[in-house]
Design a protein that fits this description.
By secondary structure, this protein is mainly alpha-helical. The chain has one domain. Helices cover 63% and strands 0% of the residues.
Length: 208
């Protein structure tokens, strides 16, 4: 890991885990709380992918709205079936089509995509540049979520040590000087907190 984690969709404490209960709730047009939760969870992920696909700020914001409207139209109709593929691939397909449509309307080829697949289920067959961006942003979102969950389980001091050492890549000697801890303590915290982070990442990935 290098630098700070990418700012991504949704609150880290609620995570980017795709919960089947939330997706079920989205089939109800009148479940405003469910739709608000979905927006809060995914809007920045979609926005970041749009920006890295070459869209300006306003166009990226508009695309977020278009994608969410697309999801809103399809979920009550039962268009997403988990047995036919993972939710993140289905959502990626919607985002990809919206980005390609944007560039077509502006008279140029989509900067980060190859030919559109005939079906969204084919997206996993070969990674285009856009799909690599999507995977990267999704992973960053999961990491942010995992870190948020772990932060609630460990002491503030231990989380700070882990953040400085692993996320910000601060030299161990500098951490020892800043916090008055030994190098051995830094390594021990890195190991223990890192194990929790990996566990949370597995949980989040299994739910997506």
């Amino acid at each position: 890991m290098s630098g700070t984690t990418t700012e991504t969709a949704g609150g880290a404490d609620d995570s980017l885990r795709t919960r089947q209960s939330l997706l079920t709730r989205l089939k109800d047009w009148n479940d405003h709380a469910g739709w608000r939760e979905f927006f809060d969870t995914y809007w920045r992920l979609i926005y970041n992918v749009a920006r890295k696909s070459g869209l300006g700020d306003q166009d990226a914001q508009d695309l977020v709205q278009d994608v969410l409207l697309g999801v809103a139209k399809q979920m009550p109709e039962g268009r997403y079936d988990r047995s036919k593929g993972r939710f993140k691939q289905w959502l990626c397909g919607i985002v990809r089509h919206r980005i390609v449509d944007h560039w077509r309307k502006h008279g140029r080829e989509a900067a980060l995509t190859g030919p559109l697949p005939e079906r969204d289920s084919q997206l996993g067959a070969g990674e285009s540049d856009l799909e690599r961006v999507w995977q990267s942003e999704w992973a960053a979102s999961l990491l942010t979520a995992a870190l948020g969950r772990v932060q609630e389980k460990v002491s503030a001091r231990n989380f700070l040590i882990y953040d400085l050492s692993v996320v910000r890549e601060t030299p161990t000697a500098r951490i020892s000087e800043m916090l008055g801890v030994s190098a051995a303590q830094v390594f021990l915290v890195r190991h223990r907190v890192g194990r929790l982070v990996r566990s949370e990442l597995r949980t989040l990935e299994e739910g997506s």
